[in-house]
Every structure is written in structure tokens, then in C-alpha cells.
Amino acid sequence: MLLVVSLGACVSEQVPQDSAQSSSAESSLGGDDWIALFNGRDLTGWVPKIRGNEPGEDPEGTFRIEDGLLTVGYESYQTFDERFGHLFYVDSFSDYQLLIEYRFIGAQLIGGPDWAFKNSGVMFHAQNPNSMLRDQDFPISLELQLLGGNGTDARPTANLCTPGTEVEMDGMKIQSHCTNSTSETFHGDEWVTVELTVHADTVVSHIVNGQKVLEYERLTVGGGSVDGFDDAMKPDGQPLTQGYIALQSESHPIQFRRVLIRRLNGT
Known about the structure:
single chain, mainly beta, Jelly Rolls, 1 helix, disordered N terminus, hydrolase activity, 3-keto-alpha-glucoside-1,2-lyase/3-keto-2-hydroxy-glucal hydratase domain-containing protein, AL/BT2_dom
């Protein structure tokens, strides 16, 4: 079964009063009960799991802090070689609002898949990283997919992808692995604010710069698009009511300025 056990004591902090804030994020926050999962100084409270390594190992320094920003970079890599990575927060969540500010920077690493150009994501309701096998590519989870444009083509962000999970929209089970949102395309290196509102396994909303762009319901374990996992961690059909949050590394550099959460109903 999909066990959800806390990786450690909750080490989150109240949102710093002097933290850098965009106007779009300000309009979304409201209230003083948001918690900063990223403290702007170090990776306290976060655990990396990179394909081919054990949890806690990041020999190339993929995840790090640069100028107060949580940065995902590949300067120590020769080639990507399908080393998909995820940086997990140590606590699990069920009902919550999550707010992320991100931007893509630089060029994609040599050897990264074509689809991973300006592609990253926020995994949620994810399995415990300690339950992932060494060569597993993605955690069983839902993904808030983050995309950037190529300067020409439409490429919305805050899409849904489902590695080892399934959802419904308008009462129908979604068959495709990824479902596009209705967001605009962000072609440059501007900061983008995305939010999730998650109510256990019942309903999830995606929001971009204050506008709802996607909604779905009835979250369950099932489907494909994940490899190298322990079969015991994938009980197909089981409602997916809680899990971990993780930031991806998929071969294109990305930075996160804020990672904030507000628990709903105490969970």
C-alpha cells in the first residue's frame, strides 16, 4: 500500500515579513497563516531523490541555494542520462493550498529529452521518497506541470500529469497522461505564480497568477507513466488522500523564489 509516514519533524517557518514578493502572489495570499517551506537560506526540511541514487544523495549538487533562491542546475553533469530528480519536503499533507513562484533560466542540459525543454513540475500527494527504488524515475504522485514557451508556440503551464495515478474530470476518467490547463504561455524568464488547492482525494484546482486554469476530482492510484517502482507501493484503485510535495529536476534549470503552504482543516 502507499504508506505516508513523515520524514521528520515539521521545520517550516512563518512567511518572513521582508521576503521578496510579487504583486500577483500578494493578491493570492490573504491572511497570515501561510507557512514558508523554503527558508531562503538552505535546504533544511528537504530531501533529494535522484534516479540512480539513494534518498538524501545529490552528488552533482543539483538542488542548491543561489542568492536566496532554490535553484535546480546541472553544471556538474556531463549529460543528463535520464537522472530525473525530485526534492521532497519532509512532511506530508492532505488538505491545503500551495503557492509556488518559479522561473526557468539558462539552457537545457545536453542529453535531456526534447519534451523536457523548459519543463519541470511540483509533485504532490507523492509517495515517501524512502519507498522509491533506486532506479525509479518518478514518484507515484500527481504533478502540477510547469512549462515555459519557446518564443513561438502556445505552451500552457500548470498542467496535470499523472505518474501512477488517475483522476476524473466532469465525471469521466482521464485517459491521457498529461492534461493541459487554459493558462497563457510564458516565453521568457519572468516569475510565474502558481497555486494548488487540494482537498484530499475529492477535488484539486490549479491557479496561475490568480486565475483558475484547471480542476479535476476523484484522485486514485492507478495507470502507468512510471517505471522501476515497488509493486507494493502501487495499489491501483486506492483513493489518494495525502502525500508528499516534491520539486522536479528534468534537465532544464529552474529557480523557485517562494514555496508556501496553508493547511486546510488542520491537515
